[in-house]
Amino acid sequence: ARRWTMGDKSDGLGGLRRKSQQLEEANLELKRVKERRDLVFTLAERGGGLLLRGWRRELDPDGSMDVSVKELDWHLRRLGLGDFSAKTIVGVNKMDEMLTLEELCPTDGELVSRIRDWIKDEFGSPAALWTVIDSKQLGNLDREGWISACISNGFQGTAQELSYLFDFIDIDESGQVNKEEILFLETDSEARDKAIFEEKMKSRGQVQRLWASVYWSELHKDLSPLHRMAPRPWMAKSFESLPPLVIVRRQRRLREVRSRQREAKSVFLKGLIHKFGSCARAWRRGIDPNGHFYIDKMILRHFCRTQELDKEVHLQSLWTTLDTDKDGRVGLQDVAPLGAVALASFRAWCRRLCGSCRGIWNLPCLVEARAMPQKDGSVQLMSDRKILVRKFADCLKVLGWQGGGDQAEMLSALDYYNAGFISEADLYWLDTWEPPLFLTADASEEAWNEIRDSLLERFGTPLNAWRHLDVDGQNEVSWAEFVAGCSCRRIRYKGDTGGAWRFIDGDASGYISMEEFSPEHYNVLLHRFLFGALLPPAAKILEEKLEDANLSLPALRKMAKGPLESFQEGLKKAGIDRVVPKTAKRLAESLCEPLEKVEKKLNLSEKGLRELTLAALELALGPEAYKRCLIFVSHTDESWTSGKYAAALSGTPWADRVVVGIRGAHLQVRFMEEAAPKGSHIVVMDDNIQSLVVEIPDDSVVAERKASGVADFNTQPLTHEASCFNPLAGTGLSTMEEPELMCFLRAVCPELERKKHTRNAVEILSKMQVTSLKKFKCLPQQRIDALFEALKLSQKKKNNCLHAARCKTKLPIPRVLTKPSDGCQGELQESKKRGMKAELFQLICRAGREMQKHGVHVWGVNPSKNHFFLKQRGDSMRKMAESTGFFQDYSCGLGLVFGAWFGFRVTHNPQFYTRQGQIKDDVERTLRYWHADKKLLRFARYGADKNGFRPGQFKSNKGGISSNSSQQDHSAEAETAIRSLIQEFGQYVRLPKKNEKSSCGLMWSEDGRISKRSKRRKTSLVHQPSKRSRL
């Protein structure tokens, strides 16, 4: 009976506790329901009677559809609900501590989720939806237009629901919605933030253009400064700094500079003709009387001062106009181009006929002409040492000379005194001239066809070839640019370069335009310019009118150099009327900008196979890149089965480099490894890479690129001919390999690891000419004692070294040491030097050596293409080299081996094969190689620019891992792979915590394994009963 009574009491106490706990939970749930109801009422009141509008206005302005406990607590106090508990409203047992719209109001949350999923599945993004529903490009939609557009495009919902969503989007209650207001419907938080930021910046630019337009119009009203509508001086600084006005001032300065240059050259040439009769004679008598045939800037300035032309001519503008190739010299062909052509042609003809120009002086025809009395009108001459110009020209015709260029200019150059006669000394002057190659060559269409075919084979299209020729973006290619800069040397052409130039430069102007270079593709530039400067409807109409009027892009540029009124009058005279003033103004402003800034750019999805990775490889390795590369395609790829690959590669060396592999990026890499012989070094790249980039270590070059307006001024593409910078440029250091004997001494004497001791020891070893361990073992005892005495090592250390030398001691990995460079040695390496390979070739070879040295089997590059980040990594490596005395431009720690560009050593080992699909194959590959090697090589100064194609992200038109897939399948496969990788490699990676961002979905441990503290934190997440709860 006593035991039954005690048990009854025990059960009674436990039941009371359970009932008390249930009552507390019920009261807490009632409190949560009441507080949520009051919060919903308050939000609806703040939203003008609508909960969704109040939610977005008060709690969720960024459109994430959730709010944290901390933010909610602040909002409750702001809304006057300070007595409410944010934790109670959210829920005590929730792990994420976030209140979502669906939890607060399930019906409204379900409606918002439905339209967000519909936008993602049907259009991909809210921005794409807006381009569809705003077909008239009005910039906004009213309620009726929103409802009809959504229903017509397949949204499964009622008009009442769409009207409610319209009120949700129309946060300012204006009755209309625009593109910026619907961008918050994006499900991806990063894409949403980026789209909203870009749209805000676009709106900001529109406002700035409006302010600039108003200020500009008020500024040119010629009002009195005291007028109430006149611009205020203290506000001018703010308005003048607006980007539209800055651009206008820059354009005005460019127009003024170019106008000044044209005027300076015109006045200069007119002055020469007025004082000397012709430009060629002025060159010979005044500009270059010593017969050097080249002058510098000081000589030109002295000539202008002596001839009193410096008062009328702006010397700097004149020099810029004459020195077209920017080599610091001006020649006869720059002052009198047609006369130079005639003189060069005559000189070449004389050399073929008599061996020199003086040789024709003693020809029978000329001797007979000088022996007889000479008469030309009122001029009479009796001399056998001179000949009248008229007689000389007649004798040349008799001898069969038919030269090109301006023959009158040529004869005036030979008539030194402008007296109407020529002497033997004049011909001797012509013998001393060595004209440029393009003046002496004969026009050769065959040579030009060979160069054009080589350019098309190298660059793919005439537009790309022209871009590589026109390095300064002036839409004109000079002879120096054609040969030395970007043409014949790059394609290794060894034929008649001058003949090809003379064929396309028919007017002997010294430069060629795009119209001369490729007339059939010239109109493509006009098309891209119009569609980049104007809206598509206006651009299409104007393009048709320009074709009817036969107006080219250079003609439009020439017309746009004057005022806007003259530009409009020029269009009317050409037969192009009814052009809206706003369109004419926009067109005139765009014509003054460089073509690269205005023209319509091709999207990555619009670029073909030859414009992406293959073009980047040809640029980095040269035109023979195909000899070292293979193109792996899937056997089920539609582009392969339909013949698009064959059509794109036909007529190119890449046509025979295609290998049909397996579908899937992870299986394709395994296919490559199993097909290659063991020990091979294979480099894998994606097919959608725009360029392979490397950071620029030289700050002066970075400053020049930044001043010239280059966007990614901290990096440059890898090219096989451009300058290859030493990574230590600017530090005054150069590198050297650590001697073998130094590695041995470091292994035995750890104190030599320090920078100062290492440098001193290397200098001593170099002076004593003992760098190898084999040579050290053969040294006599006396030299060994001298060596250790110079190294200041004790007798004990000496005995240890000698004992270790007799044994097989494992040497540490050799390091790259730094030393002061001699002059500019090591600052800049020219890859054009004999025996020096392209930088990409050097990187791949060095990566192979470093893999063998460290005993690893994979290497990669920086996953980021951000030029600031690449520059930062390079600077940190250089600072480390200055402080430690050792240089290492790669890291060996755990980090992502970027799947777009990596290399590996073929081992045929199954433990390196990926197994979790292709979405996270680069993450899995990184972990498997790290688990086996405990090291990874990542060259942080290099990166792959995949602009527009974010790695690991789904995109319908991306291809590759996104082909034949959907957003749901992509996400499901990624989540499955992440769970499997955490289960298998949990000691190396973990899931990101709140507010942590990860590009690959996982966070790497700092030292390659989870620390003990992390393990304790990880085990604490498992809710084990405490002592109090057990009691």
What topology does this entry show?
Elements: H1 2-46, H2 51-59, E1 66-68, H3 69-78, H4 86-90, E2 98-100, H5 101-104, H6 106-122, H7 126-133, E3 140-142, H8 143-152, H9 159-169, E4 176-178, H10 179-182, H11 189-219, H12 233-240, H13 243-276, H14 279-287, E5 294-295, H15 297-306, H16 315-322, E6 330-331, H17 332-335, H18 337-354, H19 364-371, E7 374-376, E8 379-381, E9 386-388, H20 389-399, H21 407-414, E10 421-423, H22 424-431, H23 437-440, H24 445-459, H25 462-469, E11 477-478, H26 479-485, H27 497-504, E12 511-512, H28 514-517, H29 519-533, H30 536-549, H31 553-559, H32 564-573, H33 581-591, H34 595-598, H35 613-621, E13 631-634, H36 638-641, H37 644-649, E14 658-661, H38 665-675, E15 681-685, E16 691-695, H39 699-707, E17 715-717, E18 723-725, E19 733-737, H40 740-748, H41 755-767, H42 773-777, H43 781-791, H44 795-806, E20 816-820, E21 828-830, H45 839-854, E22 858-862, H46 867-884, E23 890-891, E24 901-905, H47 921-933, E25 937-945, H48 967-984, E26 989-990, E27 1003-1004, H49 1012-1020, H50 1027-1030
Parallel strand pairs: 13-14, 22-25
Antiparallel strand pairs: 1-2, 3-4, 5-6, 7-8, 9-10, 11-12, 15-24, 16-17, 16-25, 18-21, 19-20, 22-24, 23-25, 26-27
